[in-house]
Structure formats: structure tokens, C-alpha cells
Amino acid sequence: MILRNNDIHDDVFDDIRPATDADVARVKAVTDAAYYHYIERIGLVPAPMEADHAANVAAGLVFVTGEPVVGVLVLVPEVGHLFLDSIAVHPDAKGSGLGKRLLYYVEEHARRLGLAEVRLYTNAKMWENRRMYPRYGYEVVERRVEGPYDRFHYRKVLSSPSSSAAQASDH
Q1: DSSP per-residue letters across the chain
Q2: Which of 5, 10, 12, 110 fits a 20 to 30 Å CA distance from 150?
Q3: For every one of its 171 residues, what pLDDT tens digit does the chain have, with 9 covering 90 and above?
């Protein structure tokens, strides 16, 4: 679904829903497909590929879109912020605007939880992500090595509640 200016409406995120047990296999498949190409570049399996998807779904942390599922979010509410643990778009949906819409959904979800900030990190060798997040208002907080992972940590302080839905519909 590509969003345009004339698509502005309150239900722009209606197709994004909490994952169920029936979605676990597809959550893993989408995550693996989205992150697989990074293995050679970073020299290890990206953390989202090793996540316990069933436990995350059971805990209510996973949101999906598509039939079959083509987009996956893992969102962890923390004190004072929402942590975007993983965002995955199946390669078949690349270029459709789904990743952008999922990022805007993260912001709306944080607001609904009463949280005014979103945080995330990405591997230092995932250059595409490091170029993309600043375009959506994320600022680098720090670079930190955690075990085998060299990560850039980002944050975004959120604006008014209605701006993300409008932005998602504007693009």
C-alpha cells in the first residue's frame, strides 16, 4: 500500500495488528528474509534473526501487517520510551512504502502508550539504516559495542499526536 496525500484518514494503520500464535512462523520467515543479506556483511547473524519469536508474540510485543504477513515490528515499552527492537519488511514488499508506514505506526503506538520518545539501534555495518533513520527524525545518541555487536543507538522525541498519521498519509 503506497500512501498519497488523498489517503488521509484515521484508519491509516488499521491493517497493522498484534501478532497471534498462528503468525509466529511467518514472523520468523519475514524477519529472516529481511535480515539474511546482512550476515556476510557484519560477520554474524543479526540479533532479530535469533529472537524468540514465539515468546515475543506471546508477550504482545509483535505487530504484523499483510496477508500473508510482509511487515513485522517488535515493540518493547520501557520507562519513558518505546524501544523499537526490530522492524522487518519482506524483500517482496521493498519499495512499497511499508517500512515508512511501519515507522510512523511505531510513533503512534508510543503516543497511545503515553510515551514521548522512540529509541532503537542498528548495527554499524547496516549503512542503509544509518542513512534512513535520520531522514525520519531520529538522532544518534551514541555508538556502543555490546558483545559482538557494534551498534549506533538512536532516539526520536515525538511531536503532537496527530502528525504521524498525517505524515504516513502524505507520502
Answers
A1: ----GGG--TTTTTT-EE--GGGHHHHHHHHHHHHTTHHHHHTS--GGGGS-HHHHHHTT-EEEETTTT-EEEEEEEETTEEEEEEEEE-GGGTTSSHHHHHHHHHHHHHHHTT--EEEEEEETT-HHHHHHHHHTT-EEEEEEEETTEEEEEEEEE---TTHHHHHHHH-
A2: 110
A3: 333 333 334 467 889 999 999 999 999 999 999 999 999 999 999 999 999 999 999 999 999 999 999 999 999 999 999 999 999 999 999 989 999 999 999 999 999 999 999 999 999 999 999 999 999 999 999 999 999 999 999 999 998 654 444 444 444
